[in-house]
Design goal:
two-stranded antiparallel ribbon, 8 helices, 11 strands, disordered N terminus
Length: about 280
């Protein structure tokens, strides 16, 4: 089915497909000794709800960079034909500096990616966490965030979440398209190479205050490495999965009083532009 701004959709059906993907990733990681953890809203859902946040329609996972690279190296062969590992190398049109594992034969077209000619199956996000320096930490963070935004702008014709009938929305859409066309003069290969080099600039280094971040975050979040690993397991949808070992501190840093429910008007998922748990509609 297609989904528009006035249409409800079966969020539980989407969650169950994502849970299937998560279980597949979990089996691969256990087989190869790869450490990962439920991240962001998925970790919050595990702690507060014992599963998905009821209105959430995605799963976020995190890995430290070494584990992430090992996963990327072996994942597609282990995933088989029912899943697709989406990265800049496997799907060069995709605008992400992180990986997604998508379910073949399904559709989840995010509104702000609706004009991108890429694989749009239902997905699980996998975010790599990289080491930050002690000196010039915020400056380095902003530099990497700017590179990530350049990639998003270059690869995405119009990043608007949903069309709105307003002059403000139209003006914003035109501005985004203008930036997109201006970025066409930037070499994709050089941008990819710069991102690959800059994000891992401090890889393998140890600092007294060892902090890590995901450069794809659209906010300045960074955490002590020992807040994330070693992990602990908690219940999520009737099974046990790993989350950051110091999850209370992790969730507090991300969400504040994370056990308090948000106002009802803020309880919504991504509401895709197109959706099917059984068909390819893109």
């Amino acid at each position: 089915m297609g989904v528009d701004e006035n249409m409800d959709y079966d969020i539980r059906a989407v969650q169950l497909v994502e849970l299937d993907i998560l279980k597949k990733i979990d089996r691969i990681c256990k087989k190869h000794g790869i450490t990962y953890f439920l991240d962001g809203g998925t970790a919050l859902g595990a702690v507060r709800h014992g599963g998905f946040i009821p209105w959430d329609d995605d799963i976020d996972l995190g890995m430290l960079r070494d584990d992430y690279d090992r996963f990327i190296e072996i994942a597609q062969a282990e995933l088989g034909n029912d899943y697709f590992l989406q990265t800049r190398k496997t799907d060069p049109k995709c605008p992400f500096s992180f990986a997604k594992v998508r379910k073949e034969g399904t559709t989840f077209v995010e509104w702000n990616k609706r004009n991108v000619k890429m694989h749009h199956g239902i997905f699980v996000d996998i975010f790599p966490y990289d080491v930050l320096p002690e000196e010039g930490r915020e400056e380095y963070f902003r530099k990497c965030a700017a590179l990530d935004r350049k990639l998003t702008v270059k690869m995405t014709p119009d990043r608007a979440m949903q069309p709105q009938r307003s002059l403000k929305w139209l003006a914003g859409s035109m501005a985004r398209r203008a930036k997109y066309y201006l970025m066409k003069f930037t070499s994709t290969h050089k941008l990819d190479k710069k991102i690959e080099e800059e994000f891992v600039k401090y890889r393998g280094m140890r600092f007294e205050d060892q902090q890590v971040t995901c450069h794809a975050y659209d906010a300045m979040y960074y955490f002590p490495e020992d807040m994330l690993v070693p992990t602990v397991t908690v219940e999520f949808e009737g099974e046990r999965f790993p989350i950051p070992g110091k999850y209370h501190e992790f969730l507090t840093k991300m969400y504040g009083d994370y056990m308090e429910l948000p106002p009802e008007e803020e309880r919504h998922g991504h509401k895709p532009a197109k959706l099917s748990v059984t068909e390819v509609l893109y």
